[in-house]
Automatic annotation (TrEMBL):
It is found in: Membrane. InterPro entries: CLDN1, PMP22/EMP/MP20/Claudin. Its main location: membrane. Gene3D superfamilies: 1.20.140.150. The gene is CLDND1. Keywords: Membrane, Transmembrane, Transmembrane helix. This is Claudin domain containing 1b. The keyword Transmembrane applies. It comes from the Eukaryota.
Length: 250
């Protein structure tokens, strides 16, 4: 029989784990990790159409899509890159054309494309640090979600077997998942900082963190708190069970 304190800890830990999983899943699937703000783009004063076509259907190149995001209010995510461009114009002139977001996803092979010391210059040598930071930033959240899914399976099996022992493993898996989520945010921020050192945004372009990154950042402490509750419940229940067994023997 499980004490009410341990049952409450398991319920709260499960709720925290569910919230963390939802937050991290939304963060991975959205593009608002980092955003740029520049002057509004108008049809008459810029080649926005050419930049849009190059961004969407042109050859994949870090320098090209980065410069386009600098100029066209771009947003960057783990799997998406987006720009804000004027919508389709009609036969009459619109004083303020309606702006729309155009997004392109990173394909799996593109996630493994090496980064270069001078973005866009393939003869400048591979930048190993930026390359592995980029790969880690999209692999770590997948590992984190996989660990949470595995811990959920273990928890279901523990309930079916009416055993409290696997709760310790569930707590350890949640702790590792929280570290992976935190590592994702750290790798992303470090990669962006190194990119700006090698290819700085033009003057007048402002940059800021997006809400997707904050969701991923929030998911990490939620997973760690869930891990702490699971580990506490498993350890306390084990001590209590040992004491009760010793008392009965005596």
């Amino acid at each position: 029989m499980v004490d009410n304190r341990y049952a409450t800890a398991l319920v709260i830990g499960s709720v925290l784990s569910l919230l963390a999983t939802v937050y991290l899943s939304v963060a991975v699937g959205t593009q608002h990790w980092y955003q740029y703000r520049s002057l509004p783009v108008k049809h008459e004063s810029s080649n926005a159409s050419e930049l849009r076509e190059e961004f969407i259907s042109g050859e994949f190149d870090e320098k090209t899509y980065s410069d386009t995001m600098f100029r066209l209010n771009g947003t960057l995510g783990l799997w998406w890159r987006c720009i804000l461009v004027p919508g389709q114009s009609y036969w009459f002139k619109e004083p303020d054309p309606k702006m729309e977001t155009q997004c392109v996803s990173f394909t799996l092979p593109q996630q493994f494309v090496p980064k270069f010391n001078d973005p866009g210059n393939h003869n400048s040598g591979e930048d190993l640090l930026r390359t592995y930071l980029w790969r880690c930033q999209f692999l770590l959240p997948l590992v984190s979600l996989a660990l949470v899914f595995l811990s959920g399976l273990i928890g279901v099996c523990a309930c079916l077997c009416r055993s409290f022992t696997p709760t310790l493993g569930v707590g350890v898996l949640h702790l590792l998942a929280g570290l992976c989520s935190l590592g994702t945010v750290c790798c992303f921020l470090a990669g962006i900082d190194l990119l700006h050192r090698n290819s700085a945004p033009p003057d007048g372009v402002e940059s800021s963190l997006g809400w997707s990154l904050y969701l991923a950042l929030i998911s990490s402490p939620l997973q760690m708190m869930a891990a702490a509750l699971f580990l506490w419940a498993a350890r306390s229940h084990r001590k209590n069970y040992t004491r009760m067994a010793a008392y009965r023997v005596a």
